[in-house]
């Protein structure tokens, strides 16, 4: 019997007089693929609008167009399995990034988890969804930003047991997955793939500025400042969370200022700044939005490098829970524990535009 992942998620949206009785409902399921796919590590992800109002789903927070960030929690014997896919920095979502989901409509996608998670040793794996309603559904995010967060119920927490899936062992099951980052201080060199001379110079300038951003951030945190610059992006002060962010920026600064990087310019994706594979330091692929950005300032080239470097597991291992300043700030208010692991939050703290104390 297929086990539903999230039952009915009652999103009680405080939208201009809409009562709880007429609020939208959203059913989310994770199910194993068909029996003939047993051992493939594949699941089927589906969303169904069980309410009476159209909802808008942020496509790249779902696997509908493939997996471009850490959308699932995959574990084996109680231990998390490493995400090995891309982590992509995008511009803040626009209307075209949302998929309307009409009442009674369902959408689904088959996901081969073995393509994105290190499941090479095979066996039984537990899978849950790694996003909440505010990150997936526009109406939930808008209600939260409007101060109605308490009226928004997330996907049914009682059903977060998720789904069990079996994966066969891969031929490379006992090989090292990827080279580890070198230890010690190395030359901060830049290697380029498919980059013009102009772009090489822009990258070098951006990296130098990123080192400055990371240094300034680390110094701010080392001095134990707890002003609005910190709380705006990472939420209320807590000594443990604060210490985590301080350590992250020390490591980000160290990586940017000492490690050899490879920059790949062979990406033409619109609306995408850059992406990395978190287990492959220090290679960064740069895309269209990176080249149209300013060197410094909000969503800058230098800030993008801080964002991407923070993703590497040997650096800070951040995720992409929220994109854009508005959603990153909302995340700090609603979930500081996620904000301190959100790459855009680190970027905006480093860019500090507009400046905060």
Automatic annotation (TrEMBL):
Biological process per Gene Ontology, one example term: proteolysis
Record CDD domains: M35_peptidyl-Lys
Taxonomy of the source species: Bacteria, Pseudomonadati, Pseudomonadota, Gammaproteobacteria, Lysobacterales
Cofactors: Zn(2+)
Protease recorded as keyword: yes
A Pfam family of this chain: Aspzincin_M35
Name this polypeptide is given: Peptidyl-Lys metalloendopeptidase
Domain Lysine-specific metallo-endopeptidase: 219-351
SMART domains xrefs: Aspzincin_M35 (SM01351)
Signal peptide, first to last residue: 1-23
Family, similarity comment: Belongs to the peptidase M35 family.
GO MF assignments: metal ion binding; metalloendopeptidase activity
Gene3D superfamilies, per the entry: 2.60.40.2970, Collagenase (Catalytic Domain) (3.40.390.10)
Keywords, ordered alphabetically: Hydrolase, Metal-binding, Metalloprotease, Protease, Signal, Zinc
Species this chain originates from: Tahibacter aquaticus
SUPFAM superfamilies assigned: Metalloproteases ('zincins'), catalytic domain
């Amino acid at each position: 019997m297929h086990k539903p992942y999230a039952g009915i998620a009652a999103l009680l949206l405080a939208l201009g007089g809409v009562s709880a009785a007429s609020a939208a409902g959203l059913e989310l399921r994770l199910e194993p693929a068909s029996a003939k796919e047993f051992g493939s590590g594949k699941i089927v992800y589906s969303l169904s609008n069980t309410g009476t109002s159209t909802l808008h789903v942020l496509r790249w927070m779902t696997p509908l167009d493939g997996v471009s960030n850490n959308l699932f929690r995959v574990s084996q014997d109680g231990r998390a399995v490493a995400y090995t896919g891309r982590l992509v920095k995008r511009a803040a979502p626009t209307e075209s990034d949302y998929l309307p989901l009409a009442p009674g409509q369902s959408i689904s996608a088959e996901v081969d988890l073995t393509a994105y998670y290190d499941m090479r040793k095979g066996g039984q794996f537990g899978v849950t969804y790694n996003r909440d309603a505010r990150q997936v559904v526009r109406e939930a995010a808008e209600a939260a930003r409007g101060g109605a967060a308490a009226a928004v119920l997330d996907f049914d927490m009682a059903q977060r047991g998720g789904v069990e899936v079996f994966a066969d062992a891969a031929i490379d099951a006992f090989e090292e997955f990827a080279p580890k980052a070198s230890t010690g201080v190395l030359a901060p060199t830049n290697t380029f793939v498919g980059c013009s001379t102009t772009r090489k110079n822009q990258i070098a300038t951006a990296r130098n500025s990123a080192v400055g951003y990371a240094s300034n951030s680390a110094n701010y945190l080392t001095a134990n400042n707890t002003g609005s610059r910190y709380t705006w992006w990472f939420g209320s002060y807590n000594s443990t969370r604060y210490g985590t962010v301080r350590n992250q920026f020390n490591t980000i600064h160290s990586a940017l200022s000492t490690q050899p990087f490879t920059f790949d310019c062979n990406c033409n994706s619109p609306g995408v700044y850059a992406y990395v594979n978190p287990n492959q330091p220090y290679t960064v692929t740069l895309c269209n939005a990176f080249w149209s950005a300013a060197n410094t300032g909000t969503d800058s080239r230098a800030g993008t490098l801080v964002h991407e470097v923070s993703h590497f597991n040997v650096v800070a291992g951040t995720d992409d829970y929220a994109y854009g300043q508005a959603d990153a700030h909302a995340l700090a208010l609603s979930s500081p524990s996620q904000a301190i692991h959100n790459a855009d939050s680190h970027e905006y703290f480093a860019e500090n535009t507009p400046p905060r104390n």
